[in-house]
Amino acid sequence: MAIKSHNRIINNKIIYLFLITVLLGIFSSLNPIITLLLVILIFAIVMFIKNTNYTFIYIIFFLLLQPAITYNGETLGLSNLFIELIQRTDEFVWLFFLIIIIIKNFSKSKWEFNKSKFDLITPILIITGIVSAIINNVSVFWAIIAIILTIKGIIIYWIARNISFKEKSIVIFFNILFYFLVICFFIGLLQYFGINTPLLPQTSRFGISIAQSIFGHHGVFGFIMGVASSLSIGVYLSTRDKKWLILFFIFMYGILISSVRRSLIGVSLGILLLFINYKMYGIKKNDVYLGLFIVILFTVLFSSRLSTITKSSKLEYGVNTANVPRYLLYMGAIRIFQDKPFLGEGPGTYGSYVSVITKSKVYDKLGINFWGPFYTDTYWPYILGEYGIIGIFLILIILFILFRKILYINSFKYKNKFIKGIGLGYFILFINYIIESIASQVYCCSLPAFILFAGVGIMESLVLRVKNKDISL
Which of 424, 122, 438, 397 has the alpha carbon at shortest distance from 244? Predict the structure, then answer.
């Protein structure tokens, strides 16, 4: 009987493989690009189902390479359909994970979803968005999409909390991530010194050389180097292994050559606040003194570059702020607040990706008109404009809950110093995100949202699993 059952399974697999091959053959004659995407999709679905936890954490490498694929696709003249699909794929990835987690729990005798403090505040934010959409006569379809994108970070966190991770897997994952980011740094360094490849040329901004590495935009490269700086200094402070201090220097220099000022300020401020509370996190006083010395040394060694970046800031913002998109978005949000203070103009109408693709009329009403992508260049004006002061209040509560979770993660007594160091890095990273959010939608764009919310969810899941099973980290 067992042999017959085994043969039946093999025969079914052969039939499925044959059907898939036939379907792909038919599609390939119609559209080769669609065929390629179908192959990738089938592979992804199989991976999602068989190895949900590993697929989830390693999806970050697709998110990191996504800008490079898009940028080089445009350079190589690939079809707009292919480029658009690559750009939008990340929005559907989280839906796959949600469905798989629900199916896996549905197959059990008892549903085992992990609850969190987000479970109360998130529905309130959703209801606020729906009420705002109804009052402002916004399309329900687009409003729902806009709300889902707004809470994307919480969705990613919820997925991470409901997947089981092993300590060894997390250590391996972050080590691989560090190696990948080191490669990204050296590609950016070659660009900065004018050693270019056809698809990764050197660029400049206000007359100064900048690096963008594989990301096609210096802002993304600077942000990623800020993430790497935060995590590497955290690991050093915990392990005291000098290689992590060297990596911290490398990644901080990466921020400098990207010319992204906010990342430099955010990481520095995060480290300063961590040092102020050094006793709480078991950081040695000598490391605090060493950190202050490093800041001074870094400032002296790269004073010329810092001065150049400062001058470029004056050129960008100091001459005529009325023509700066972010300034206009902030001013527009203030005008919306004056007119509709509590609920704003409704989800998908101002400062969001949905407002761009639906060509929101709010911009015409406010007299704001510039190139499309710049409409998504800020976070807080977007929340104020679409959800009003109630939305701002709810987002602040969400961030407060997230920060409390980071403090909880860092209060745990770890035996694994590397894991403890990642926790310290997330303290710095949280402060960095606050600075980044002034000029970037870090809390709802897939890559930064994954790094922050998935990282916290993974760490919290690991800590709770250890506490419940009394296993030492």
Answer: 424
Q: pLDDT digits over 152-174, tens only?
A: 999 999 888 888 788 888 899 99
Report how far residue 4's alpha carbon sits from residue 12's, in angstroms, rounded to the nearest whole number: 12
- C-alpha distances in angstroms, 22 versus 16, 18, 26, 28? 10, 6, 6, 10
d(CA 375, CA 333) in angstroms, rounded, equals: 12
> Would you state the structure tokens that stand for residue 63, as one six-digit string?
């998110």
Q: Which two tokens stand for residue 322?
A: 């009325």
Contact 354, 145 (CB under 8 A): yes
Average pLDDT, the chain: 81
- The predicted structure's pLDDT at residue 180: 93
Whole-model pTM? 0.85
The yes-or-no verdict on residue 243 having pLDDT over 50 is yes
Residue 427 near residue 270, CB atoms below 8 Å: yes
The per-residue pLDDT for 330 is: 92
For the stretch 7-29, what's the b/e string if a residue is b when 16 or more beta carbons lie within 10 angstroms of its beta carbon?
A: eeeeeeeeeeeeeeeeeeeebee
The mean pLDDT value for 396-414 works out to: 91
Angle between helical axes of 242-258 and 261-276 (0-180°, round to 10): 150
What is the mean pLDDT of the segment spanning 255-268?
88
CA nearest 226: which of 447, 411, 70? 447
Q: Please give the structure tokens belonging to residue 460.
A: 């919290």
Q: How far apart are CA 93 and CA 325, in angstroms?
A: 31
Q: Coil, strand, or helix at residue 439?
A: coil
pLDDT at 435: 93
Q: Could you list the beta-strand ranges (E) of 47-172.
A: none
**Per the structure block, which two tokens stand in for 292?**
């202050």
Q: Which residue reads 């499925």 in tokens? A: 16
200 bridge partner residues = 197
Q: How far, in Å, CA of 147 to CA of 428, rounded?
A: 28
Whole-angstrom distance, CA of residue 94 vs CA of residue 56: 9
